[in-house]
């Protein structure tokens, strides 16, 4: 059979390592980012330098995806990150800004991200029969009785789901525990970023060939995707939500998200604030 007779039965598959993770296909994601950027490009309220940084980050996301060597993927994703977190202020350290700001931005959505994953696991588990109010609105996840019921009734059916339910029972049932849960994530994430920065320095300054960095590269790819998506969503909303008399910059994004994070930790309704955080579940990793 000739290839032209039935092209759907043929495909090419590269022999190099491909980083996918639980994110959308790279081509589709790149097209989505590009289309969103073109929309933002037409808005006069966004600072020109901010548009350039986002455009560069999207370009290096594409270059990282197309690179063959794992070290080249890692470096391209890292350059994309540095474009977004760099500052014009003399003395500002780009990595320190990345560590400080990204951990807070990600911490805002950490609870909701994990609850969405818990919901998906519950749907495919036999333990779902223990719940009568389960639906895609996810409101049932705010009720601590949900986790108590699953932890007891799923112990023999799905022990892993029962264990996660018991963990969430403590997190969702007490504001203090949830604050510690979020703070621990931020601390762990900052430590992980430091490990990644050391690998970055070895590759760039020592021209090192680093084995077994597929997982780190996949993490970095997700961090870049998450940051681009969160920024673009933010810059689409200020037209109606934020009234100011100057153009908006990436620094405004970081300041706003940092304030939002501090408010989250101090809130008396922390469970509801964390649950209602803005988060694109399609970019879960």
Characterization of this structure:
With 285 residues, the protein is mostly helical. The chain has one domain (24-86, 98-279). 66% of the residues lie in helices and 0% in strands. The protein has helices at residues 26-41, 48-66, 70-85, 94-123, 144-153, 159-173, 175-205, 214-236, 238-241, 250-266, 270-275. Helix 1 (26-41) runs antiparallel to helix 2, helix 2 packs antiparallel against helix 3 and helix 4 packs across helix 10 (250-266). The longest helix has 31 residues, at 175-205. The radius of gyration is 21 Å and the shape is globular. The two termini are 40 Å apart. 29% of the residues are buried.
Task: Based on the model shown, name its key terms.
single chain, 285 residues, mainly alpha, 11 helices
Reported for the largest beta sheet, the result is: none
Task: Output the structural class.
Answer: mainly alpha
The separation of the N and C termini measures 40 Å
| Morphology | globular
Integer-rounded radius of gyration: 21 Å
Encode the helix/strand succession as letters.
HHHHHHHHHHH
Instruction: Tell me what portion of residues adopts beta-strand conformation.
Output: under 5%
Number of contiguous helices: 11
The proportion of residues forming helix, as a percent range, comes to: 55-70%
The figure for the number of domains is 1
How confident is the prediction overall: mean pLDDT?
82
